[in-house]
Amino acid sequence: MILTEIFVYEFGQIALVGGILSAISTSLLGNLVVLRKMTFMGSGIAHLSFIGVGLGLLLGYNPSLITLAVAVTSALVLGYLSRKGIHEDIGVGVLFSTSMALGIILINLSKEDSSRVMAYLFGDILAMSWGDVEVLATLAVAVLVFTILFRDHLVYATFDEDFSKILGIKIGAIYYSFLVLLASSIVLSINMLGIILVSAMIVVPSASAMLVSKTYKGMFILSPIISTISVFAGLVLSWVYDIPSGASIVLVQGLIFLFSFLVKVFGK
C-alpha cells in the first residue's frame, strides 16, 4: 500500500528512476575510487563544485553548467598533480576549505535566496525532472561502457602501473576519462543528495561491496545492487516518516555498510 502511494505520483517515479540511474553511475565509479584509495577525492570534488554554484548565482547563469565545468576542471587538475607525484588527497586537502570559503563569499555577493542555496547543499531528489533523468541516463550508459571497456585496466594500474604501461595500456588517457566521469556523476547527483552528502553515493556502497565480495569483479556487480536498494528503501522511509529523502538514502547505505561489516567479522 505504501509503495502504491509514493510511486503512483510522478515525482515519486522520477525520484526512483533518477535515483537508480545515479546509483549505478556513482557505485561503478566508486569501486575504482575505493580500490585506488581516493575516497577523499569524491568529497573534495563535491566541495570544489561549490565554487561553481556561487559563481553561477553571482553571474546569473545556470549554476549546474558552471558547477559541472568547475568540477571537471578541478578533477583534471587534481589528476594531473597526482600523475606528477602529488597524491590526490593532498591536493584535495589544500583546496577543500578554500573552495567552500570562496563559494560562500560568491553566494553572499550574489544576494541569492537562502532556500536555493540550501537545495545545492542538501539536495532534493523529489524536485528532479524528467529532463534530469534523461541526463542521468546518458551518463549511466557512458559509465557502463567505460567500466566494461577499461575497468580491468584501471584495476591493474592500481596495483602495478609500471607493468600496465609495459603491456601498452594508455593509463593516462583512461585515468583522465575516469576523472571526467567521476566529476560529472558527482555534480549530477548533487540534485539528489546535495554537496554535503553526495560523496556517500560514491564511497559507501562500494565499501560495503568490498567487505563481502571475494573478487573485485563481484564488487562491481554487488555495489550497484546495494546502491539501488539504498535509493529504493530511502525513498520509502522518507515517505513513511516524512524525513529528507537524501538523508534517508545515506542512512540506509550506512546501515548496509554496518551489516556488511558484521558479516565480514562474524561470518568467518
Description:
This protein has helices at 2-7, 10-35, 39-59, 63-83, 88-110, 114-122, 130-159, 161-166, 171-212, 216-241, 245-266. It is mostly helical and 268 residues long. The chain has one domain: Orthogonal Bundle (ABC transporter involved in vitamin B12 uptake, BtuC), CATH 1.10.3470.10. Helix 2 packs parallel to helix 7, helix 2 (10-35) packs across helix 9 and helix 3 (39-59) runs parallel beside helix 5. The radius of gyration is 18 Å and the shape is globular.
Q: Give the strand tally.
A: 0
Which secondary-structure class do the elements indicate? mainly alpha
Q: What is the chain-wise order of helices and strands?
A: HHHHHHHHHHH
Percent in strands: under 5%
The name of the CATH topology is: ABC transporter involved in vitamin B12 uptake, BtuC
- The termini sit apart by 39 Å
Shape verdict: globular
Number of helices: 11
How do the helices and strands line up, and which of them pair or pack?
Layout: H1 2-7, H2 10-35, H3 39-59, H4 63-83, H5 88-110, H6 114-122, H7 130-159, H8 161-166, H9 171-212, H10 216-241, H11 245-266
Helix pairs in contact: 2-7, 2-9, 2-10, 3-4, 3-5, 3-9, 4-9, 6-9, 7-9, 9-10, 9-11, 10-11
